[in-house]
Each structure stands twice: as C-alpha cells, then as structure tokens.
Amino acid sequence: MLQALAAGAGLAAAPWPLRTARAATAPDLVLRLTAAPDTVRIRPGGETAVLRYTGQVLRGRADALRPSASYLGPTLELRRGERVRIEFRNRLADPSIIHWHGMIVPEAADGHPRFAVGPGGEYVYEFTVTNPAGTYLYHPHPHGLTGAQVYRGLAGLLIVREAQERAWGLPGPEHELSLVIQDRRLAGDNRLEFKRMMMDDMNGVLGDTVLVNGVAAAAFRVAPRPWRLRLVNASNARIYKLAWSDDRPMRVIASGNGLLSAAEGIQTRPYVVLAPFERIELLEDFGTRRPGSEVALVSREFASLGMMGGMMGGGMMGRGMEDMMRGMMGPGQGEALPVARFDVGTQARTAGEELRLPPAPRSPREGHELHTRLAFRHMRGFLDGRRFKMEAVADDERLPLDEGTVWTFANDGGPMAMAHPMHIHGVRFRVLERSTGDAPADLREGLVDAGFKDTFLIFPGERVRLLVAPTEPGLFMYHCHNLEHEDGGMMRNCRFEARSPAGRT
C-alpha cells in the first residue's frame, strides 16, 4: 500500500504533459527523439557542426522510424488511427520543444513555446493520428530560437500512411522519393553561417547552397516508371519556383495536408511555388523520358519579393540595393538555383496504375468570420497591430469548434511590403479565394491552392480567404513561417473553443 501511495504521489508531482502520458491508454507505438549537437559531412571537405534529432523505437513497429543519412532527423512513418507516444529529450544548450507541423493533435501535444523544456529537460507527447495520408514535418518551436535551431539541423519528415493508398493506384513506398529542400550558407571550412547582418532579420536568412535531404548536389537514380515525389520546403525563408529543366509540366496530386480529391483531380502546373514549410506531392512518370537521360529539378528566377524591393518601391533602385547586399547575404529571393538531378535508368519501362483520388469530404457549415491584417513596419512584423505574447489571445482570435470560420488575411499594412507564408496550428483548411491580380505575374501559375493546407503564401496587397474548422479545443498559434519573422514576434495565439448557448465562443 505504501508503494502504491508513493507511486500516486510521484504521478501527481509530474509535469502535466508527462502525467497525461502516464495515465493514457497504452499506445501502439512509443518513440524517443533526442536533440543534441553532432557533426556530419554535407559536402567534400571538413565536417559540419550541426544540431540533430536522433531516434529510437521503444515499443511497436520497427519501421516507424527511418534514420537519416545526414543532419536531418529520422523520418517518422505513422499510420492513421495509430496511438503514438513520443518522448523528447533536450540535450541542447538552449530550451526547445517539438511542433508536429500540419498534424492535428491535442493542445498539450502541439509544441507551443510555453511548453519548451530547458537543457537536460524532457517532454512527452501523446496523440492519435487523425490526419489523412500525406507529407508532414516536425521541427523545434521555442520562441526566439526556432530559426537558429532549424537552420543548424533540427527538422525531420513525418509521413502518414493509410491502408487505402495502394487501392487508389499510388506508387508503393519502394517507388517514392522525399526531397527536403533547404538553402544554407556554407563557409570555406563547411561551417554553417546563420545571421550576418540586420537584413537577415528582415528578409529572413537566405543561403547560397541548396541542400536536398541534407546533401549538396543531390542526385537520384530512378527506374523508368511512375514515382511519387514528396517535395518539402524546410528553408528558413526562401521561396522556390520549382520546375523541370526540360519544361515538362508538374502533376500535383497532394497539397500540404493530404491528397487532392477526385473532384479536384490532378493539378497540372508549368512550375510549382513552394513557400517555407509548404509541401506538395507529384506523380512523375520518368518512363516517358529517354532511357539513360538526365533531368534536373530547378528553382527558376522570379521577380524579387525581398525587403529591399519593398522598401525602395521595387524597380531599379530596389534591385540595385539588393545587388549591393548580395555579396554579404548570398543569392537573393527569386534567383535561379539548382535543386537536384535525376538519372533515368535504362531498363524496360513499367507502366503505372490508373490514379483514383479519394472523394472530397463534406464541407463544414460556415457560421463565423475573422479578419487579420498583416503588416511589416519599423523592421518588425505585426498581426492586426499585435506581436507575440506567450499566452495572450484577443477576442477576435477565437474560433468555434466543429464549424466553419471564414478567416480573411489581408497583406496591406505598412510600406515594407513582403510576401509571408502563414501557418495555423492544429487545423487543416481550404483556400476559398485569393484576390486576383496581386500575386506576381511570374509566380501566379504555380500557386497550388487546391486541397487541404496548413500553410499558405500571401503576397503584398493580397487578400486570402480561408475556411477553417477546428476539431481540437485549446490554445494554438498562427504565425508567419519565415522563421526570422516568427522569432521576431510575427506570431499570435488563437483559441479553439465550443460556442456558448447564446451563440458566442
């Protein structure tokens, strides 16, 4: 009896998230992720000091965790409906916490900065996987430190699978490739260089070398057959205009939060615009290319979206200022960059199955409206004139549970006009409308607003209307996913809660 009482007292004294984990129904899968310093070889020459997630499967499927060959964290492969426990250990010199980007999880499992644990600390997450099959991410989310920790290596891929995927005619896992795209500044000794100057806080940190899955000059050998390509932008601030070097169209089958529906069909684009922490999936048949040929994935040039262009009104003066800064900052936003090379095999072509996308889910009833104005002034970002406070939430940042809110974002505040990738935690949403004419002409055709998303790009002067229907109650977040803007305070809380009988949340 004394042992039982002692055990109960220990449980009551444990931190709340850990106490919840211990009291929950036994999970199907238990993983451990540890964040710690490490060194890896990114390109020929000396090794690079990084921060890195490493992982272990403590209980359940051994194939739930696939180690990385570089600094990225292991790929987590979860199944829809699976009960998951993840033990996070912080072995860094600074506080940290993990956010499961795009995943719909309980408030305590979302990785809010108020849950950050210090050096040597631990945090336990528990959630049931409710997201559909798709491509997601995990990364740190401590306030003011996210950009530096992600830049130095803390990020990983999270894939959700469903049993029906093969029935839909998708290529199997053996014919998938995931490309996590990041830009980094590598000094001559292969040292990662983060911030060099004030402009890095305003524009966001832009690198001079594109890494794919943590490797420079990435190359893949592919059989001549259909492949499922998962393209992930895990850069701090860079926007990519992704295209094939032979100008073939890109066939998009999934947006950031799952497959497109049968009603939407495959979205064919001449190129795809991918903002920080957006993801898409392509169905690419390499069997339609000549055996033994080579094709590259590139980021094409587009008009500058950087701070200098906005401050100087664009045109020659803005471009001239950016040219002057380029030597210190690396390639500017919108410069052409190589991404990866694909070498097509010479074996006989294999035909793919007919793709059968899933039906569209029912749309929620729309009964609420919110409006948020984005602004960048005095070198800082604002959301409705507000900046981040750890637990502050305003009355107009509350959304009702289990019904649709039309949330309009307007990027028209202040003279320092910039594009912002906006992310909302704890929900998946649809883009209802994007104001016409405000997206740059050389990017407009590559925007993929179809399907469910959790991150969207909004250009200067634009208004974007979303349909958001929260299902998890609690305090979540919305923010710019340019990580330097986020760390600088362009982030706010939002609360999802049930409506009162009077009809107000």
CATH architecture of the largest domain: Sandwich
CATH class of the largest domain: Mainly Beta
* First-residue to last-residue Cα separation: 46 Å
Please state the CA-atom Rg, rounded to the nearest Å: 22 Å
The computed structural class is mainly beta
> What characterizes the major β-sheet?
8 strands, mixed
CATH fold assignment of the largest domain: Immunoglobulin-like
| C-alpha geometry | globular
Number of helices: 7
Question: What does this molecule look like?
Answer:
The protein is mainly beta and 505 residues long. The protein has 3 domains: 160 residues, Sandwich (Immunoglobulin-like), CATH 2.60.40; 172 residues, Sandwich (Immunoglobulin-like), CATH 2.60.40.420; 132 residues, Cupredoxins -  blue copper proteins (Immunoglobulin-like), CATH 2.60.40. It is 11% helix and 39% strand. It is built from 7 helices and 32 strands. The strands form 6 sheets. Strands 10, 11, 12, 14, 16, 17, 18 and 20 form an 8-stranded mixed beta sheet that branches. Strands 3-4-9-8-6 form a 5-stranded mixed beta sheet. The chain has a 5-stranded mixed beta sheet with strand order 13-22-21-15-19, with no helix packed on it. Strand 1 and strand 2 form a beta hairpin. The longest helix has 15 residues. The radius of gyration is 22 Å and the shape is globular. The N terminus is likely disordered.
